[in-house]
């Protein structure tokens, strides 16, 4: 079975075509600047070559038509006919409380995703555009929606209710939803397999650390707490997002400055986090470089990031009554030797160790704790596209 995986953003989309017999990648790519001058598609074939197609793309439907045309273009030698695409898996950001699992798309699912637009106004609309475009371009081919929020629907109320007037939850749907669910679930399951254990027997803390970062407590395969909240802005200090914040700061800013509410929200999403503290960059490689030559603000940004990760990891261990494995994934989790070491330093009191030699690993699955460490610390590369394709295959094969 060949599964096309699509992740539609407001002006861009990413895609992968996977052969699910052996989970191999057949092609991947990116469309940029949809509905903006300078639209282009970059297609990557399995020989590692990149092919760029520059042509106007006025909407997501045109962009996806160009993707499909490229997949069957004989010069790229990917597939011969669109009939070779057996199913399409779509990343959909927000399912509110509507779905706790991936689902085959029908009219009811589309209505539910539509009802969640107000919860994810930047993400759900392009996700819906992608699904509707594929429905008309590939009639009869099943579409599956895989939600970022679904995995976290197992959280108990004490994890997801905010200490606000309760009717705001009932009337306005304000609660912690959590995000990155596809990645947290995937790396938790992969880690259990990698360790040769049954996930039902494990307490796992998954740290997805990238441009956006979140941590999840996975108790016997189920999410029981997570650090992102009503939106992906809450929780850890991120590349540009603020994370945990005293809400009184917002009304203080509104009184002291001319910023509108929308401007403050934009700043909290785009100009804060390690970028805001360091005044240098949101990229941890730049911060490492600057800190290594003595830049104090870069070092402070890294210290604050590591401290919030450490506090969250320790808190989740307390909530689960222990931890068997701590998993690092995402661009930083998979690659940053110094951040992993900095986060876990001084946690021996709870059985968490790091082996400096084993920690010299980037982008591959490896245990990095000491042989006698009570907690397995694991680097596990995430693969959200493969996770989406696996769910798609499972549902379509029924
Ligand atoms: P996204 O959330 O956009 O998917 P990624 O998971 O790809 O992001 O993570 C991107 C981030 O990973 C970069 O901003 C950078 O900070 C970090 N990163 C990648 N490689 C390294 C590295 N070798 N050392 C430190 N940080 C790294």
Overview of the molecule:
The protein is built from 14 helices and 14 strands. It has 398 residues and is α/β, with parallel strands linked by helices. Strand 13 (366-367) and strand 14 form a beta hairpin. The model has no long low-confidence stretch (mean pLDDT 97). Bound molecules: adenosine-5'-diphosphate. The site of adenosine-5'-diphosphate (ADP) has 12 residues, from helix 10 and helix 12.
Summing up helix and strand content along with how strands pair, one would put the structural category as: alpha/beta
Overall pLDDT: 97
**How much strand?**
15-25%
The unique ligands bound to this protein are: adenosine-5'-diphosphate
Q: Biggest sheet, in brief?
A: 8 strands, mixed
Distance between the termini: 13 Å
- Strand line-up in the sheet with most strands: 5-4-3-2-1-6-8-7
Strands, total number: 14
Helix and strand succession?
EEEEEHEEHHEHHHEEEHHHHHEHHEEH
Radius of gyration: 21 Å
Globular, elongated, flat, extended or rod-shaped: what is the shape?
A: globular
Low-confidence stretches: none
Task: Please give a quick description of this structure.
The protein has helices spanning 60-72, 107-115, 124-137, 157-160, 166-172, 181-194, 248-256, 261-270, 273-278, 284-292, 296-320, 330-335, 337-344, 384-397; strands spanning 2-8, 13-19, 24-32, 40-45, 50-54, 87-92, 103-104, 143-147, 203-209, 213-219, 222-226, 325-329, 366-367, 376-379. α1 (60-72) packs across α3 (124-137) and α10 packs across α11.
Any descriptors?
six-stranded mixed β-sheet; eight-stranded mixed β-sheet; binds adenosine-5'-diphosphate; 398 residues; globular; 14 helices; alpha/beta
């Amino acid at each position: 079975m060949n599964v096309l995986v699509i992740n539609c953003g407001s002006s861009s989309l990413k895609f992968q075509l996977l052969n699910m017999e052996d989970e191999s990648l057949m092609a991947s790519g990116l469309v940029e600047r949809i509905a903006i001058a300078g639209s282009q598609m970059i297609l990557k074939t399995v020989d590692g070559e990149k092919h760029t197609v520059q042509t106007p793309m006025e909407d997501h439907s045109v962009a996806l038509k160009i993707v499909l045309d490229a997949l069957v273009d004989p010069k790229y030698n990917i597939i011969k006919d669109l009939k070779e695409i057996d199913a399409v898996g779509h990343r959909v950001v927000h399912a509110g409380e509507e779905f706790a699992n991936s689902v085959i798309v029908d009219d009811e699912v589309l209505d539910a995703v539509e009802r969640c637009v107000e919860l994810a106004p930047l993400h759900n609309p392009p996700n819906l555009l992608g699904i509707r475009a594929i429905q008309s371009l590939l009639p009869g081919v099943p579409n599956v929606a895989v939600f970022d929020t679904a995995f976290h629907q197992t959280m108990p109320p004490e994890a997801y209710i905010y200490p606000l007037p309760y009717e705001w939850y009932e009337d306005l749907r304000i609660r912690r939803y959590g995000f990155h669910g596809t990645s947290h679930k995937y790396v938790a399951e992969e880690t259990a397999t990698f360790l040769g254990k049954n996930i039902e027997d494990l307490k796992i803390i998954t740290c997805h650390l990238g441009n956006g970062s979140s941590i999840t407590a996975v108790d016997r395969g189920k999410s029981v707490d997570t650090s992102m909240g009503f939106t992906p802005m809450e929780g850890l200090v991120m590349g540009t997002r603020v994370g945990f914040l005293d809400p009184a700061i917002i009304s203080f800013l509104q009184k002291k400055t001319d910023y509108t509410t929308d401007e403050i929200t934009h700043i909290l999403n785009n100009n804060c986090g390690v970028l805001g503290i360091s005044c240098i960059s949101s990229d941890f490689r730049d911060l490492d470089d600057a800190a290594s030559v003595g830049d104090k603000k870069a070092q402070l940004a890294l210290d604050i990031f590591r401290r919030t990760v450490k506090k969250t990891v320790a808190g989740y261990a307390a909530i689960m009554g222990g931890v068997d494995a701590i998993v690092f994934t995402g661009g930083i989790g998979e690659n940053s030797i110094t951040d992993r070491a900095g986060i876990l330093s001084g946690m021996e009191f709870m059985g968490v160790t790091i082996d400096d030699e084993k920690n010299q690993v980037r982008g591959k699955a490896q245990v990095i704790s000491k042989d006698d460490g009570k907690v397995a610390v694991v680097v596990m590369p995430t693969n959200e596209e493969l996770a989406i394709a696996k769910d798609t295959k499972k549902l379509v094969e029924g």
